[in-house]
Amino acid sequence: MTGLMIILSLALVAFYVNDTWRANERARRVGRQACERAGVQLLDATVVRIGQRPVWGARGFALQRRYRFEFSADGAGRHPGEISLEGQQLKRVTLDWPDGGREFQGPDPDDRRGGPAG
């Protein structure tokens, strides 16, 4: 019985690590594409996870992850952006513009995962 619990625990850890890695890659891709569409530069070529919580969505249980990134409209300033994923599905991308405006991008209906193609 103990051996079975160890195997199940290891399988659960492996699933979580794999899912987290895939979500991080997806968020990085979404951030890059959002910046390209907005005509701005993604700084540091990366996103950082700032939050994670379990949710019960349309497809059942999933982890909702929030990521933060920075972009520059003029090459000098740094401005924040945020990405929200539910599982692998894109929920929202937000760009905070230097003039105080915000740009929201929701799921792309053409993508089978519910986000920008990639």
List key phrases describing it.
6 strands; six-stranded antiparallel beta sheet; 1 helix; about 120 residues; elongated; about 30% helix; alpha+beta
Description of the molecule:
There is one protein chain. By secondary structure, this protein is an alpha+beta fold. The chain contains 1 helix and 6 strands. It has one domain. The chain is 31% helix and 38% strand. Strands 1, 2, 3, 4, 5 and 6 form a 6-stranded antiparallel β-sheet that branches. The radius of gyration is 17 Å and the shape is elongated.
What's a quick, concise take on this entry?
The chain has 118 residues and is an alpha+beta fold. The protein has 1 helix and 6 strands.
* Rg computed from alpha carbons, rounded to a whole number of angstroms: 17 Å
Q: How does the overall form come out from the CA principal axes?
A: elongated
Low-pLDDT regions: 109-118
Domain module count: 1
The total count of helices amounts to 1
Strand proportion, as a percent range, falls in 35-45%
Measured as a percent range, the helix fraction is: 25-40%
H/E series: HEEEEEE
Distance between the termini: 43 Å
Q: What structural class is derived from the secondary structure elements?
A: alpha+beta
Number of distinct beta strands: 6
Summed over residues and divided by their number, the pLDDT gives a mean of 85
Q: Largest sheet, described in full? A: 6 strands, antiparallel
Helix and strand topology:
Blueprint: H1 2-38, E1 41-42, E2 48-57, E3 60-72, E4 79-86, E5 89-96, E6 102-105
Antiparallel strand pairs: 1-3, 2-3, 3-4, 4-5, 5-6
